[in-house]
Amino acid sequence: MSHELSHLDALEAEAIHIMREVAAELERPVLLFSGGKDSIVLLRLAEKAFRPARFPFPVMHVDTGHNFPEVIDFRDRLIAEIGERLIVASVQESIDKGRAVEERGPRASRNRLQTVTLLDAIAEHQFDAAFGGARRDEERARAKERIFSFRDDFGQWDPKAQRPELWQLYNGRVRKGEHVRVFPISNWTELDVWQYIERERLELPPIYFAHEREVFARDGMLYAASEFVELMDGETVFTETVRYRTVGDMTCTGAVASTATTLETVVAEIAATNITERGQTRADDRVTEAAMEDRKREGYF
Amino acid sequence: MSLTYESNGNSSADQRIAETELLRFATAGSVDDGKSTLIGRLLHDAKSILADQLAHVKETSERRGDGELNLALLTDGLRAEREQGITIDVAYRSFQTDKRRFIIADCPGHEQYTRNMVTGASTADLALVLVDARNGLVRQSRRHAAISALLRTPHLVVAINKMDLVDYDQAVYDAIVADFKSWSNGLEFAEARFIPISALKGDNVVEPSTNMDWYDGPTLLHHLETVEIAGDRNLEDWRFPVQWVIRPQNDERHHDYRGYAGQVAAGVLTPGEEVVVLPSGRTTKLAGIDTLDGPLPEAFPPQSVTLLLEDDLDVSRGDLIARAGEANPPTVARELEAIVCWMSDQPLRAGGRYALKHTTRSVRAIVDAIDWHLDVETLAREDNDHGLELNEIGHVRLRLSAPLAFDPYARNRETGSFILIDEATNDTVGAGLIATPEG
Hints:
The complex is a heterodimer of chains A (301) and B (439).
Chain A: H1 7-25, E1 29-32, H2 37-50, E2 59-63, H3 69-82, E3 86-90, H4 91-96, H5 114-124, E4 129-131, E5 148-151, E6 179-182, H6 190-200, E7 211-218, E8 221-224, E9 238-244, E10 255-257, H7 263-272, H8 277-281, H9 291-298
Parallel strand pairs in A: 1-2, 1-4, 2-3, 4-6
Antiparallel strand pairs in A: 5-6, 7-8, 7-9, 9-10
Helix pairs in contact in A: 1-2, 6-7
Chain B: H1 13-16, E1 21-29, H2 35-45, H3 51-64, H4 72-75, H5 79-84, E2 91-96, E3 100-108, H6 114-122, E4 126-132, H7 139-150, E5 155-161, H8 170-183, E6 191-196, H9 220-226, E7 240-241, E8 244-246, E9 259-263, E10 274-278, E11 282-290, E12 304-309, E13 320-323, E14 331-342, E15 353-358, E16 361-374, E17 381-383, E18 393-406, E19 417-421, E20 428-434
């Protein structure tokens, strides 16, 4: 019998190890779930790490109120199916309480406001660790981030003062009020995630597969027409067969034209693509050259 | 001079979907030795730079007036790095070919960042040391090779770069190889390989060079794709640090379930064999190996699994499960000797107290003595009377608040390594490699 692991097995083993370290060393972890493919993979990895017991932490969704309804339906079904606890932190509530101010205009988005809701929820529940599904291949600033990424009392990331991460010896020590963001699939690529979903036969929200949708074109991307977005002059709504490559808010997540209706055909498309997923589908990263770095410093996911 | 880029055709989509083997390698280098260009070349020629990333680099290069396609922009992630043209921290990058999936730990080459090289080397299967053919072996390349040897990165590749600037002259290459061999005499690598390349022109990176007929070895990528790494892990000794105890509550079906979850550090574990739980020394039998996908007939590193034991022993996080009666049992002791790489501005001194994390166990440690430190360039031992300053590496004796079960680092990386944590700041301040006692 061969004693080699495939790359997916090795990445899975690493992620399970990371999740168990957090459960063992931190008092109050939480798993951040967006309904996107990366956090769906995180849930499967948590099952691998802790079954037949329940997860030693709740699952939390930061709900912007601008989510795709299909994703919210999927979230509720999946959480019920795996029998775990779900906390919903609402951006609308942050706005109602005056903690966050709604952006205005055709390009308004609640993307940035999520950080307020997230940090408030972390403080309210006294979470000292938050699992996220971020990957190093997504964006340049993320390539520099540790697997255990320390955040101060203000939720801030300081890229110049990161703890060295040696072997598989993670240091998750925090003081009261501080927390760590932990990224178990840091070393995975988009293709790894898709291959894993295919291998594990994971169910995804239907918007990841080709479907007909009312869209409009802006900045070279296709956006869903919805009550949350104002059209600008010259923009018109039309019907297109599309799928989503990432899942964020309806206001800032672009669709790609595609006829891939099965996992196999989506994986084949991803393997052959020549554009990164954030470059193709995320308006939030296009604002400035260091958009992600700036948001991360403030405490974003 | 600028690299030319064709459009990014991916003709081999079908082949890329197969599961392959993972190879982690570390590079280190200074700003000028072409490390960024080499990584850019590997990523590009392996078709792992996507069109929007490339367009972004092109656009930024032009806006900044770099006058050419500046590949460093692709690898420098932080604003300060791009503004100052430096690399601050270890970056991890992935790419794949149809043969292997790669993770690069890209370490900055500044003098003050030795700790980053140690960090990058700690998880690497292979070290890629860059040498500028015009300058020969400089302090930086020696330092990286020495640290890689110290951390027992099994494979070494010395890439002699910028061969285009020395007219692809074999004599230059031969002299550097000879110099490296005589200098590194005594460093331990499972395998060392020398490859003459030009990252800028692409010679011997992905495609064989037509300018160096005198070289008949593999290209860099071919070597990375084929170097044998499966034998690097210790499959003899059984080592399983218990990470987490799985005891389902409120669940009738699993009422009596008690599983010991963790990652196999060494050995091929098979049910039925007698095991010893350390440091207590109690023995029982391995009853089974459990996973979400069902029981396994065996488990080996680095699998994450759950062990079931025959008897209901008191086993908890931090315990080490080993095979009973092994030829090379772990040492169980309250003191140890280690090579420590120091990573803090506050020096390590005799009498200092730290938290020590070893596998899944944390104890407190007191520094009894610092015997000597290393000249990181020559690996010569030097008398130490000042403690260890930031980026110094030395031989340290530690006393522990509770016993640890460990192995020499040379025998097993996982059970032979530890980190030191300053309990006042919670920072990771030292990396330790457990040594065989000098007496």
